[in-house]
Amino acid sequence: MINVTNHKETELIIINIPEILVANGTGAILVLFLLLYRIRIAQTNQFDEKAYNFMLIVTFIATINETLSFIIDARPGFIFYILQYISNTICTDASVIVGYCWCLFVEYHIHRNFKRIKKKSRILAVPLIIATILIFINLLGTGIIFDISKENKYMRGLFSYVIYVAVFFYYIESIWTVKSAKNDSILVEFFPIYYFVVPCMIGTIIQGLFFGIAVGWLCVAIAFILIYIEFQISNSFIDDLSGLYNRKYMNHYLNKLQNNKTKHVYGFLLDVNDFKVINDTYGHLSGDRAIIHIGKILQNTVGNGCVAIRMGGDEFVIFAILKSNEEALALKKHIEQNVRQFNIHSKEPFHLSFSIGIAKYSGNIDTFLSAMDDSMYEAKNMHRLMH
User: Which end of the chain has fewer CB atoms surrounding its CB within 10 Å, N or C?
Assistant: First the structure.
């Protein structure tokens, strides 16, 4: 994804423009087709969907600019000199931006957790900020990332390796995120991390070693196609309305839990109080908005080792790895506190509340589910008595 060479290399290498046009043209068409297709079928408005579309847009822009940079390479004139700087700057920064967005995409797609994504986005932004600062300094004519000679030839800078380090850091970090999620019994086995990372790594290495071969962004485009195919499979585990995992995922999680009995797992069964009243009074569109708000509330509530699921209708489940009953009660209070905050600040005509049942997993799935159900109905009866 990053054009790199030195002065001697540019003197010896003849850039094959037709091959570059074919490679980058193919990549641009693939990305544009995928983006337009996703817009046409009206994907959901979840964070990972937005991140994926944004990466497609950045990749398309970078592919066009890289093609331009090759076409005008070594062409004399001040305008071409300026265009060389602009096009190569966009391509260089785009590679780091895609890596950053990819990590956030993976993080959210696995955990469906806004609290985690906000915290991690700040940490992951450090390499991007460093790279962007260096690229900005490079625009001042320092040549630390790349330089354009008097003959308008692209040349590698002394600190160009920093961009590679940042890009590969993001790829490795995304792999680590997936591996950690598997160890925590959170992730279902479908997530195709290597479908994206391997093609991107191959393309970056080839283009880094051999100037004039434009395969970097083409490999990224192919990776997006591969990930999208698998993405459709993984989306079968996501509830469209709430953005949480669905009942199908819950069954997979419980099967996995049954084979891993060493974890201290607590289950929280949440039933929305008076949900039928919301539908009957304000209409089913308001009921849908309530589900959407609940999804966001739970995504902002659950932390590490937790997974939130919409079982169906107005019933939700949270599975959490906790150390004690006290931590379980603290999580319950945290949920209730976030719901109260929603009711205070929301402009919706309805208020939300949950009847929450809690149970600890003891090795038997049926007993676990039954205990959650019984506990929830006790809370539901208490709510009815109080109202």
Answer: C
